[in-house]
Amino acid sequence: MPVKVLIPTPLRQYADRHEAVEVDGHDVGEVLQQLVSAHPQLQGHLYTSEGRLRSFVNIYLNDEDIRYTGQEKTPVRSSDTVSIIPSIAGGSVAAARC
Amino acid sequence: MALQLAAAHLAAIRRHGESDYPQECCGLLLGRFAGERRIVDDVHPMRNANTTSPENRFDFDPKDHLAAQRQARERGLEVVGFYHSHPNHPARPSQYDLEHAAWPGYSYLIVRIQQGRAQEANSYELAEDRSHFIQEPLDAGAAA
Q: Is residue B90 part of a domain?
């Protein structure tokens, strides 16, 4: 079923300049895999070399963070919208290392 | 790339940094991409959601960020970057900033707040390999 994925501005250059892409999938993981299959340059910006979502990449299904709804196994419906939102953090002093 | 914003927008960021001192302030830079420039049409203050060390750390609350992105999209504005303050520290990225940066392609504007008063502001972009920040020209002379 087609689901709309909203593409963050800096990543649109890797998605043929599209603001949004419609891809198929039964769950969020399948949707994201279809997205990177259609636009392979997105792979490294969303996933680590081990195939996990990068730590600063948050995925929302409509208003819900998928970390609290079943991660990438969260099922999707055709009316759903997936948003890719970066974590934004920083600070003036270097992080303490343990 | 270069970051272009109106003097009034930079003044708003400086006031935000002063009002939140000694804690760090943070927010979104909204606007558009035009060739080699990121042009700011509005600034969107965000709440610093860091509760453990807000004097030298900031976090966006993810839900707030999602809502702000949605509002910007409805207004036809893009997120072109982010700003935050460095209380009593120079306006240049820390190692912590580098480790917590998102993707290249955004502007990262930092303003130093020294003893409660805004000082210099600098803008940076993240290198493609994410290894370092690159200072970019900051054009803050335009009228709003």
A: no
